[in-house]
Design brief:
Layout lengths: L7 E4 L3 H12 L4 E4 L3 H8 L10 H6 L12 E4 L2 H7 L2 E4 L15 H10 L7 E5 L7 H12 L6 E5 L9 H6 L4 E4 L3 H10 L1 H5 L4 E4 L1 H32 L3 H9 L20 H14 L7 H24 L8 E5 L14 H11 L3 E5 L4 H7 L4 E2 L3 H5 L4 E4 L4 H4 L3 H5 L6 E4 L6 H6 L3 E4 L1
Parallel strand pairs: 1-2, 1-4, 2-3, 4-5, 5-6, 7-8, 9-10, 9-12, 10-11, 12-13, 13-14
Helix pairs in contact: 10-12, 10-13, 12-13, 13-14
The chain binds uridine-5'-diphosphate-glucuronic acid (UGA).
Length: 444
């Protein structure tokens, strides 16, 4: 019997989908990516990516059909018909943002992806959810699929959460820490083992479980990471009150392997499109399930995190003499973390926005996030370089820890500012280097 490798489609081409599609092509599969936004499809088809993600554009260019020297294994479309005809395995990678004014996440993109695809599935197909969803969604979507698909039971659902980090998306997708699949049949498990044969062969653990567990693995992993960050930020509050050093403390407790060194960087806290909304959606869902008590600690994790932003603003106000009126503040960093142009729920921009509202003249610079920042906060000032942002500043705020900022020459920056005063919101600069250059250095 001749066995053909499964053909793969990826629905939704944001951070997750674009990376997943390119990675699947890299692993040797024929891949068709779909997005409902034609401009995105046009861009991707010409080998370009609508966001900054290291290595992704190169990976894409190695495979997109029509590009010189590419394998041609990767194509893009806006047509669900084409996707349904083409694929054996369909990955759903659309986003699930926080609902406006609510804790719960918005499932409408996932629902509409399944509802658009399912009625077109006439032959055996495995629909694999990758989006981060409230527990219980997979079971609901499986029922919906059965109801809508002409193929009946031959169109099956599986859940396969994704753990990639922005900035490391390519590496995390090709070499995942673990692969988790929620399945209801041996056949689905077998198919997913085939899709992930390469990382499994390299030693990535392959965890097979049921729908609710697979969904919960994702939300609990992000909740744990958020909790680690808020824990160290709570310790930073105590350190500040007691004149301790939270950076040393984190290093010292991290030597205990049970605690570990990672994700214990104190600062202005976590942001982005995932951790903040995921812990909130998790609380909302637990409430619906009558298990809200189990997650009340996440409310504290969230409020410690938000308090960091406010505290940064206070420190800055204090630093410029108690009032922002008539003061110029330079903000280094707009992205929610370095190596990303993503400004969704960015702590840096939130702080910049608060300071602007309190009357300061704020000038922001970020190596990659400028365009997105300007779109979200059009009233802030923007400068084309760190040095330009710093010109005439009464205080410089370091809020996203790009390498570029660690490499700044304090003398050079010192020559353009009004006052040599720097506040490090990420505990990432070398205090000694700045102090030696006559700066007043203060960190969170
Ligand atoms: C996070 C998770 O790390 C991924 O595993 C997960 O797949 C992803 O969400 C998702 O759900 O899609 P990401 O949002 O890319 O990934 O960013 P992280 O690297 O986790 O950083 C999140 C925030 O925490 C950033 O604002 C960062 O500056 C902050 N952070 C991180 C700290 O303040 N301190 C730390 O020690 C670590």
């Amino acid at each position: 019997e001749h066995h053909m490798a499964p053909k793969i489609t990826v629905i939704g081409t944001g951070y997750l989908g674009a990376t997943h599609a390119a990675a699947m092509a890299e692993l040797g599969f024929e891949v068709l990516g779909l997005d409902v936004v034609p401009e995105k499809i046009e861009l991707l088809s010409s080998g370009r990516v609508p966001m900054y993600e290291p290595g992704l554009e190169d990976l894409l260019r190695r495979h997109v059909a029509g590009i010189d020297g590419a394998t041609g294994r990767l194509r893009f479309t806006t047509s669900y018909e084409e996707v349904a005809d083409f694929g054996d395995v369909h990955f759903v990678c659309v986003n699930t943002p926080q609902k406006h004014g609510e804790y719960a996440c918005d499932m409408s993109y996932v629902d509409s992806a399944v509802e658009s695809l399912a009625p077109l599935l006439r032959r055996p197909a495995l629909v694999v959810g990758k989006s981060t969803v409230p527990v219980g969604s997979a079971a609901r979507l499986a029922a919906r699929l059965l109801e809508l698909a002409p193929a009946g039971e031959a169109a099956e659902l599986a859940w396969n959460p994704e753990f990639l980090r922005e900035g490391f998306a390519v590496q995390d997708t090709l070499h995942p820490d673990r692969i988790v699949v929620g399945v209801t049949s041996k056949q689905a498990e077998k198919q997913l083992r085939e899709v992930y044969a390469s990382p499994i062969g390299e030693g990535s653990p392959f965890v097979v479980t049921d729908f609710p567990t697979a969904e919960l693995v994702k939300t609990s992993a992000n909740s744990f990471l958020a909790t680690k960050i808020s824990f160290i930020n709570a310790m930073a509050e105590v350190c500040e009150a007691a004149d301790g050093d939270v950076v040393k403390l984190a290093e010292a407790i991290g030597h205990d392997e049970r605690i570990g060194k990672k994700f214990l960087r104190a600062g202005i806290g976590f942001g982005g499109g995932c951790l903040p909304k995921d812990i909130r959606a998790f609380m909302a869902r637990a409430g619906e399930l009558g298990a809200d008590q189990a997650l009340t600690f996440l409310r504290e994790v969230d409020s410690i995190n938000m308090r960091r932003r406010g505290h940064m603003v206070e420190l800055a106000r204090e630093a410029v003499g108690g009032s922002f009126l008539g003061k110029r503040v330079a903000v280094l960093g707009a992205a929610f973390k370095p190596d990303s142009d993503d400004v969704r729920d960015s702590p840096a921009l939130n702080v910049a926005g608060q300071i602007h509202l309190q009357g300061a003249q704020v000038t922001v610079y970020d190596p990659k996030g400028m365009e997105n920042a300007r779109a979200l906060f059009p009233t802030l000032g923007y400068a084309p370089s760190a040095l330009d942002a710093a010109r005439g500043a009464h205080a410089v705020l370091h809020l996203t820890e790009w390498r570029e900022f660690r490499d700044l020459d304090p003398q050079e920056v010192g020559a353009v500012v009004d006052e040599r005063r720097i506040l490090d919101g990420r505990n990432a600069l070398d205090p000694q280097v700045w102090r030696e250059a006559d700066w007043t250095y203060r960190a969170l």
